[in-house]
Amino acid sequence: MTIVEFLSARLDEDERASKAVPVGARGRDRALAEVSAKRKIVEGYTRAHHASMRSLQPTLAGAAPGPTRQGEDPWSELLAWRLAVKYLAAVYRAHPQYDRSWED
């Protein structure tokens, strides 16, 4: 299981639990907003990962890397997103599917 799959499953669980709380109950809207924000972080990581892999493809094929926007560093962006996703996953450290290698 990847960290994205793990977090997506945990966020699905959190969303279901939040929606089970009656509408108007204290904290329900905030819990749902937090799930939404966390999903956006996971999506950002996924986009950064794909962008980094695309930039690597020409190099693996023996060609020069493709053009990037001026100042763009897909690897630094990926690292920043990866750290954010690891911090999100750490909240679920006690879950049996949590992978301790995500802490490195």
Automatic annotation (TrEMBL):
Q: Where is this region: Disordered?
A: 54-73
- So which domain of life are we looking at? Bacteria
Q: Name one Pfam family in it.
A: DUF6221
Q: Which InterPro entries match?
A: DUF6221
Q: What is this protein called?
A: Uncharacterized protein
